[in-house]
Design a protein that fits this description.
The structure is a single chain. By secondary structure, the chain is α/β, with parallel strands linked by helices. The chain has a single domain (about 10-155), classed as Rossmann fold (3-Layer(aba) Sandwich), CATH 3.40.50. The chain has helices spanning about 20-30, 50-60, 100-105, 110, 130-135, and strands at about 10-15, 35-40, 75-85, 85-95, 115-120, 135-140, 150-155. A seven-stranded mixed β-sheet has the order 1-7-6-2-5-4-3. The radius of gyration is 15 Å and the shape is globular. Bound molecules: adenosine-5'-diphosphate (ADP) and magnesium ion. Magnesium ion binds near residues 50 and 122.
Length: about 160
């Protein structure tokens, strides 16, 4: 087996210079994200994880950017949209405040991850179980000032 056979994945990179740029990248990403997906949304506080979700939600017709806010306290926001003519459930989670796998389990992720689900998790990398189950990762890094580097890695889909 070739080396690339080991879950090489596909990598997409974007650079943005403003929040509206990042929303536009989110809109593009929606086209790449065929459900079901469980994606870790990784990056320091204020890098633009929630901002990116605004664009994804917008492209799916699930919510306007202004309607997408951080699920910091509610843990989970749920939207319904359409992608390639099929209904999509968009789940946006922020698990920063959860401590330990037991607390994570109370979210019932297994029930969320249906065939039509796009699950985007901020701070999911804190949890081993989420890292194991993730179908990909979106990493946002600050690149000075308002610039951001966005790296999307998706596992090969079977
Ligand atoms: N290039 C950029 N991409 C995304 N957000 C940016 C960018 N430049 C500045 N910002 C600002 O950074 C903040 C990102 O906030 P948010 O999306 O809530 O971050 P996170 O969810 O990662 O904590 C917003 O205030 C946004 O206006
Ligand atoms: Mg956030």
């Amino acid at each position: 087996m070739s080396e690339s056979g080991v879950a090489a994945g596909k990598v997409h990179e974007f650079t943005t210079k403003s929040d509206s740029d990042t929303i536009a990248v989110g809109r593009k990403l929606a086209a790449l994200l065929a459900p079901p997906q469980l994606l870790l949304l990784t990056g320091d506080l204020g890098t633009g994880k929630t901002t990116l979700v605004k664009g994804i939600a917008q492209a799916l017709g699930a919510a306007e950017p202004d309607e997408v806010t951080s699920p910091t306290f509610t843990l989970l926001h749920e939207y319904e949209g359409v992608r390639e003519g099929k209904p999509v459930k968009l789940y946006h989670l922020d698990v920063y405040r959860l401590e330990g796998e037991r607390q994570l389990e109370t979210l019932g992720l297994d029930d969320l991850l249906t065939d039509d689900a796009l699950v985007l998790v901020e701070w999911g990398e804190k949890f081993r179980s989420l890292k194991k189950r993730a179908t990909g990762e979106i990493v946002i890094r600050s690149a000075g000032g308002d610039a951001r580097k966005i790296t999307v890695t998706l596992k090969e889909q079977g």
